[in-house]
Amino acid sequence: MASASLASYDDSNIFAKILRGEIPSYKIFETEHALAILDAFPCCAGHSLLIPKACSRRSCQPPCHSSAAATPLAAPTPPPLPFSEPSPN
User: Fold this and answer.
1) Looking at the domain assignment, is residue 26 inside a domain?
2) H-type helices in 25-88, by residue range?
């Protein structure tokens, strides 16, 4: 049986803080249902994250209406972003 601490949403998680603007991010686009940002620790240039705005303990289980609105946003491939490697200095 899950404990009460696991069953509730933690609004101090990093994604909630990004959505509230408490942690800086590079915004690609935003809708009323989702926010797309560049990943702070990308596996490749331009790696991005699509964060649903609905409160959910697991990113793979947002409320149905939120998931239905955010999922089509991930499908189109946006044009490449200009990217250059940081200088060593």
Assistant:
1) yes
2) 64-74
Q: Phi/psi zone of residue 81: left (φ > 0), alpha (ψ -120 to 50 degrees), beta?
A: beta
Q: What is the CATH number of the domain that holds 58?
A: 3.30.428.10
Residues 27 and 25: their CA atoms lie apart, in Å, by 6
Residue 32 falls within a domain, yes or no?
yes
pLDDT digits (tens, 9 = 90+) for 23-39: 999 998 888 888 999 99
User: What pTM does this model have?
Assistant: 0.61
Eight-class DSSP state of 61: -
Those residues whose C-beta lies under 8 Å from the C-beta of residue 32, and which sit 6 or more positions away, are 53, 69
The tally of domains found in the chain comes to 1
**Domain presence at residue 30:** yes
* Backbone torsions φ then ψ of 18, nearest 5 degrees: -65, -45
Q: Is the dihedral of CA 32, 53, 51, 67 positive or negative?
A: negative
